[in-house]
Amino acid sequence: MFQQSALGTSTAFGGPRTTASNPKGFEVVSPPEDSISSLAFSPAALQQNFLVAGSWDNNVRCWEVEQTGKTIPKSMQNMEGPVLDVCWTDDGTKVMMASCDNKVKCWDLASNQTVQVAQHDAPIKTCHWIKSPSYSCLMTGSWDKTLKFWDIRSANPIMTINLPERCYGAAVDYPMAVVITAARNLIVYQLEGKPQEFNRGETNLKYQHRCVAIMRDKKNSPIGYAVGSVEGRVAVQYVNPAQPSDNFTFKCHRVNCANNSYQEIYAVNDIAFHPVHNTVATVGSDGTYSFWDKDSRIKLGSSEQQEQSITRCCFNHSGQIFAYAVSYDWSKGHEYYNPQKRNSIFLHPCYEEMKPRSKSSS
Fold this sequence. Notes:
single chain, mainly beta, four-stranded antiparallel sheet, 48% strand, cytoplasm, WD40_repeat_CS, WD40/YVTN_repeat-like_dom_sf, cell cycle, transport
């Protein structure tokens, strides 16, 4: 059981950096038994680091991450269907779990109990906790083509917004939310006062959007977003660009083949912005992660190729740790699924690697 007294005060992530003998990082013990759909580190309210992961095995697991990189399993909760997303409340006391059973449950970590707090008519793809100066609520996006906002003390949503298509992903950084749907729709919402549509975003991406993340300026205010597609390409978009050239796309997660005569193209599965440096990480179906300086428009580095896809990634609140999940993402179909290959989560010390190469202004 997760014990409240286990919350420590250390935030450093020490121990050896990744080396030739430890190229992947620190492996998380007792990983999920099926594909990993979601990862989230505890918020800054908890000075110690905890990591939760949702999986297609219907479970959400929680680990404590020690300074050495060692992970300690704390507890696990079960849903009635595959878990598609997880998120923390801002105070770090609860975790929300969104599932294919059309429900979101709230996991109270101190009591280790769960209670249902949201309901849709189809699987729930995303859940995000919104903390504003005037309210706190849960935002859920579903394949039933709705976005709902919940006071988790009430059985009915505070508000329901109809989407043009099934929700495929979302990002929240108050006062901004960005939602991507099937048919390449992208909607930006402003959350101040009452959530409402701000605009319909357009990108130069020609194929299905797969993931989205919000970026900040040097004053730590949200100013735009990055969207990844199945075509191995990312679009960086500003809400109010100073000039049109500020918005751009770049290629990633592509593998040169046959003496560079052609490229194999892989989906961008997840995007995460570094909480301090505002640089960005991408992970893909090619089994690699890459770090990018969006302002200088250069690649900071990339990993060796894993045996399976990298499905999700996230940074801890101080930006010291990069977590990434290695599991099959079904991008090549059922015939490439190998049950003998295990699912893994790795923790990579990243603070220095993620520093921008120049002092370009946002």
